[in-house]
């Protein structure tokens, strides 16, 4: 901490105004994140003001960040005991944590409103201790690999799903998920199914696409009345061989609410096709749920033809780059 210029500045203005200035500053995403974190070093008082905002959205995309954040949860003498439960509202994890780290994250952040687990979790990690912790969480937004849930509980009656309105299931064809209870969900409005292969050589790539199309056809009769958008996500467009546009059209014809999400990257060997196929759908600061909503709404209003016309994949797909997920913690 320092008692230099910032402290002299604080001493000359009312505390409520100083508090507002610093909270607005750390919430301003136009400012480099590392600079915003520097506010916590000004004084103990300013640290207490800004830390709730700094910890509101936590993104962990490296093993180092996961370990560091777990250590902070386990040992935080300067923070109240329930600090992380009260203030961490979005937790995104993009790298495989250890079982002990998973336990620390789930126990320490029980107040999360958005829990986004974006990794391919080995089935062995869904042990009894982790399974018992899911019941203590009630996120509205949930992204979860089905392997993170114990085999006997892989269905929509699982406690972690009871209040979710937007659900992303990271799916693997070798694992079984019970879809029969899907239609009974009353609060869900958005669902995305993404193929995340644990055993990538188990089947030829084109068969994986056939499997995905069959899955979509099986799920559609079970869609709940409350559902607005159903996204089928493709993370490797190159596996569709030479029939990419017709495949996109075939899947999107299954239901008017069904939209295809394509993982876009300029390093993807098929990025030229993706950009030409769906040139107008990637919008700054618009996440893939909003993109999909726009397509479904335009279909329902008649602005987009449904089923899509042959050779018009832009009417079937969105670019799924997930810009709304939080940046790296610290």
TrEMBL record:
Organism's domain of life? Eukaryota
Name of the protein described by the UniProt record:
F-box domain-containing protein
The UniProt annotation puts the region (Disordered) at 305-330
